[in-house]
DNA sequence: ATGGTCAAATTTGGATGCAACTGTTGACTC
DNA sequence: GAGTCAACAGTTGCATCCAAATTTGACCAT
């Protein structure tokens, strides 16, 4: 992660969230100048952002001079989710082969922290105290775990593909996850057991098992998320 | 495919092939200005090209102001090949679900043409006539088949990922394939039988079978290619 | 000789301007 | 009234320019 975020990066994220939230409607046409004025920057970084969004499939070039927000059907989102599952399996397979001892220890450390947080959340919930703050910390830890697994794969291109497959669903997924965890005590716990199992498979260098666990975990997570919506 | 290729596109392709051919050595540092002067264009399109190459993993940012050609170890190329196999399986899975009748007919039509070409090549070879021209036509047909299958998947993002996984190996792969086919009569034939089987699975809408066939075919093709090198 | 510090030169990110091309609208003809 | 062509507005692509930040090299002190 670059410490200094360029204007192009900001424009990329802002336009992406604008599309995700529906602020920019599907089919609406997007111009460099218009976006530049809206974001109060020059067209140069906007062009770069639009190029990246185009590669992500979030905007489409209908003609050489007309760019518009891609019409993302729900079916396409489901398709990308399926791609994500497959990629996660691949990542796990690579991680089983390439993870270093330090990285594996870091994974366990993250899960330890997550366990502590989970216990804390349950405690506070029993006492009727607010848990929002700790729940977000828990989600952050899960995110951190995912990133750490990705790092274990030692395959930047693959990790980038995984990120790309999540571009569509990420914004609303975190929100769903937060609500789901807040409702259901056992939701997070179930997932952690599979996380532990994944780390064990990684330690054993068992790429087939790691792939299987990662795929099942991803599928299960997506299914549970879909139920909750 | 844009009818008019922008300077940025040209710069992207030129730099990419320069890296592939070793003209730009691994670890060599790349600057916008230097590349711009070398290609006789302004730095603006070069910047865009470097951004895309960075996303492809062909160049690396070592610092905020230092960009150099990524050191691609053979292991990394093998890793990407493995990713490619997985992605091909995913593409086949999607194609089985989303392919239209017209697209399926087009697939068979391409294979028919390829069969004719293969017969022609064998004929000419028996008579001691040169086959280069027809062999390249055969490879073009195989490429066309691949593209057509990708189109069947109706998942542009996934197809882009597949393309990305091939960035490293594509230049030398075609050359290897050409040599291999020229040597071995049965090489192409074996692959076509699996291609026919793939189309059958796609017609049946059997996504599991399609995925399996595509994976086995990719693995087999890569293995055979590796032998030949 | 080695390590740290400082300054100059190089480099990138961003802004602005211009030319070429495209999409559109309106008028004119059949 | 429908189709076609031309003019116009708008947009993109590229070049040039500028400022901020970083890399690099030299110089000094230890």
Automatic annotation (TrEMBL), chains A, B:
InterPro entries: GntR_C, TF_FadR/GntR_C, Tscrpt_reg_HTH_GntR, WH-like_DNA-bd_sf, WH_DNA-bd_sf. It comes from the Bacteria. Keywords: DNA-binding, Transcription, Transcription regulation. PROSITE patterns: HTH_GNTR. Residues 5-72 form the HTH gntR-type domain. Transmembrane segments: none annotated. SUPFAM superfamilies: GntR ligand-binding domain-like (SSF48008), Winged helix' DNA-binding domain (SSF46785). The keyword Repeat does not apply. It holds the Pfam family GntR. This is GntR family transcriptional regulator.
